[in-house]
Design goal:
By secondary structure, this protein is mostly helical. Helix content is 49%, strand content 0%.
Length: 79
């Protein structure tokens, strides 16, 4: 599923994004953020992160550097 989403994002970046006359408010761009999220995380987590990012792309939020968080390693308890 993630590979399909990544291909769709790449298609958007190649065919649609260059034709628009605006820049993303954040760094990395929202499409790069989404692509990286789907590369690093499972479908549900990546979808959550991408949706959260897209919702912050409006005048109420200041532009910022907002990288995709790394996967959190599950801790094994030795109790």
């Amino acid at each position: 599923m993630n590979k399909t989403i990544i291909k769709l994002i790449e298609s958007y970046q190649k065919d649609v994004s260059p034709n628009w006359d605006f820049k993303c408010r954040h760094t990395p761009s929202c499409s790069n953020y989404a692509k990286e999220a789907y590369e690093k995380h499972n479908f549900l987590r990546a979808s959550f992160l991408t949706t959260k990012r897209l919702l912050s792309c409006n005048p109420l939020f200041k532009p910022s550097y907002d990288p995709v968080p790394d996967k959190k390693e599950k801790r094994k308890s030795n109790d």
